[in-house]
Amino acid sequence: MSADGPRLLTVDYEAWYHALALAPWLPEDMRGSLPDRLERVTEELLALFAEVGARATFFVLGEVARRRPRLVRAIAEAGHEIASHGHAHRPLWAETPASFRRDVARAKAVLEDVAGTPVVGYRAPNFSLGPGTAWAAEVLAGTGHRYSSSHHPVLLRGRGGGQPRHVHRRGGLLEIPLPTLGGLPFAGGAWARLLPAAWMRTALRLHRPHVDRPLVLYLHPWELDPGQPRLPQLPLRVRLRHYAGIHRLHRLLPRLLRRHGPWRAIREVLPELEAAVP
Fold it and tell me: What is the C-alpha to C-alpha distance for residues 193 and 200, in angstroms, rounded to an integer?
């Protein structure tokens, strides 16, 4: 672990059509007929991570692992952690405890079978594990998960108010939140694509990670795919949220990884994180 705390690289491994912003226009029963476009971008990510010496945690959808087992095995064989993003990419507010248990148990079984490694981590779609869905932590602990990285405590529209910004426990589950700077987001996703690049560079420079507040960066494969399908008749806000900044992130990511590493997978530092939060 670096002297000032771990820098953790994470990938929410899903296809472009899994994005929740597109869900009203792409129901679940349409997914099987659409190209996922994961082949090329996965090869690019693995090559980039190898070039900069980064190891990452891939939060993989069970649905993707079932359809693309060769790609998931390639990720594991390259030395990256395979963790769970659930099976069907439904946010926790759309689940019940019973349906969620079925979803994560199914995903865990599929991922462990495909990758041949234990799955101990989980990330909720849309970072939807919060005060109203705290019951999910008990379900995750009960299905053999040791940690979650499912909370992004940004101070926008009240989303992160009063929520812990450091590594903490929810029941028997370790929660590793994404970082913010002054309550403002910078660690990836649409924020990295839509906010000025100078903001992310500044935030990465000023954020000093500690064992109880690691620097967790995240991205989606489709955010590095400028050629993905463009759905017609989307509202402007949805087009901006999903498509804007993809070309810029494609150029920016290699520089950020080289400048701010070393980057590690969560499983590599999990014992230290668990020891810091009894």
Answer: 10
Q: Tell me how far apart the alpha carbons of residues 91 and 133 are, in angstroms, rounded to a whole number.
A: 10
pLDDT tens for 154-188 read: 865 444 455 788 999 988 899 999 998 888 889 99
C-alpha–C-alpha distance, residues 257 and 264, integer Å:
11
H/E stretch holding 56 reads: strand 56-60
Local structure of 109: helix, strand or coil: helix
Q: Which helix (H) or strand (E) holds 13?
A: strand 7-13
Regarding beta strands 215-219 and 7-13, do their DSSP bridges make them parallel or antiparallel, or are they unpaired?
Answer: parallel
Q: Is 77 exposed, middle or buried (0-12, 13-18, 19+ CB in 10 A)?
A: exposed
pLDDT (tens digit per residue) in 20-59: 999 999 888 888 789 999 999 999 999 999 999 999 999 9
For the chain, domains (ranges, CATH) are 7-276 (3.20.20.370)
Closest by CA position to 138, among listed 95, 97, 87: 97
209-50-251 Cα angle (round to 5): 75
How far apart CA 243 and CA 38 sit, in angstroms, is 17
108 Cβ contact list (under 8 Å, min separation 6): 62, 84, 119, 143, 144, 145
Helix (H, G, I), strand (E, B) or coil at 152: coil
Q: How far apart are CA 125 and CA 130, in angstroms?
A: 12
**What is d(CA 160, CA 185) in angstroms, rounded to the nearest whole number?**
11
DSSP structural state of residue 12: E
Residues 85 and 153: their CA atoms lie apart, in Å, by: 19
Full-model pTM: 0.95
